[in-house]
Amino acid sequence: MSLVIRSAELDDLDGLTELMYEYIVGFYKKPRPATEKVHHLIQMLLEKQNGVQFVAIQNGKLVGFATLFFTFSTMKADKYTVMNDLFVIEQYRDTEVELQLFLECQKYTQDHEFAHMSWITGTDNTRAQRFFDKMGSMKGDWVNYSII
Predict the structure, then answer these.
(1) Does the first or last residue of the chain, that is N or C, have fewer Cβ atoms within 10 Å of its Cβ?
(2) What is the largest CA-CA distance in the chain?
(3) Could you tell me which residue ranges the N-acetyltransferase domain spans (predicted)?
(4) Which helix or strand (DSSP H or E) is residue 110 part of?
C-alpha cells in the first residue's frame, strides 16, 4: 500500500471538498456549508498565509486531511498552530494514515518555528482522545467557549 502525505494542491479541490463534507455533515452532523464557502476556505489554505492543509492519499485515493491555522499566543508572545481538523475516512482511523497526518502537522509546526501546536476535539470523541493521548499530548487547562 502506498501512502502519500503532502500539502493540498488545487487538483485536490473536488476530492477534498467531498472529504470535508463527509467530515462536517457525516461525522460531526453539522449543517452543510455552501460549496463556494468550502472552496474559498480551501483556496485560502492553498496560499499558506493563514494556514495550511495536508492530504493523505492511499493507493491514489484521497482518504484524509488535516488543517493547521496560524495564530498567536499572548502568554508565550509567540506564534502557534491550531490543528483545526484531523480527519480520515473510517477504515483508516487508528492506522498509519491518521498517524502520519498528525506527524506531518507536528513537523510543519516545528519546521516553521511555531511555539506549539494545539487542538480541540469533541468531548464524546473518545477514540480521537485515545489517539491524542497515545501521541503524548496533554489535556489543556482551559475551558473552550464559543458564541454564535
Answers:
(1) C
(2) 44
(3) 3-148
(4) helix 96-111
Q: What count of other Cβ atoms lies within 10 Å of the Cβ of residue 107?
A: 14
pLDDT digits (tens, 9 = 90+) for 43-76: 999 999 999 999 999 999 999 999 999 999 998 8
pTM: 0.89
Which tens digits make up the pLDDT trace of 110-141? 999 999 998 887 778 787 777 777 877 777 77
| 8-state DSSP, 10 | G
Domains, the chain, in order of start with CATH, read 3-134 (3.40.630.30)
Residue entry with cell 500539502: 7
Q: Which of 35, 84, 92 is nearest to 61 (CA)?
A: 92
- The arithmetic mean of pLDDT across residues 85-109, rounded, is 95
Cell digits for 118?
Answer: 494545539
Cell numbers that stand for 67 in this block: 488543517
Which among 93, 148, 92 is positioned nearest to 121, based on CA atoms? 93
Sign of the Cα pseudo-torsion (148, 68, 60, 126, in order):
negative
Per the structure block, which three cell numbers stand in for 110? 516545528
SS3 at position 101: helix
